[in-house]
Amino acid sequence: MMTGLSFTIATELAAISDPRQARMLGDYAAHGGAMLGVIRIGVEGTNGFWERHDGGDELLVVVSGRMTMTLRPESGPDLPHDLGPGDALLIPRGVAHTARLHTPEVRLLFVTPREGNAAWTDHPEGKRRH
Description:
By secondary structure, the protein is mainly beta. It is about 5% helix and about 45% strand.
C-alpha cells in the first residue's frame, strides 16, 4: 500500500532530459467523480482537524504558505510531509491526514473524491474547517 508521495514540481520538471517525454510520478486512484478546487486554510482551521477520503486518492498542490501534513496509515507510524510553495502531496485513499501550518495561511489546489469523505476534530477547541 502506498503511504503518500510528496514532491517538488520544479525539481521533477528539471529532471526531464527530453522535453518530449513525460515524467510519471505516481498513480491517482478514484472510484467515482473527483472535485478540483482551491482552498485557503488559516491556522485556526487546522487545530485537531482530520479528514479521510475513502472514495479515492487526494492530490494537494501548495500554491503559497508552508505546512507539515501528517498522514496516519492504518498500520505503522504517522508520516510527516513538510510542504511549501510548488510542493505536491498525493494522499492514498483511506489514509487519515491533518495539517500543521507554519505560516498564517496556506493556499492549496486540490483534487479530491466527490464521495466517501469524512472529517472530524479530536481537539476540544478545534473548529471544523468544512
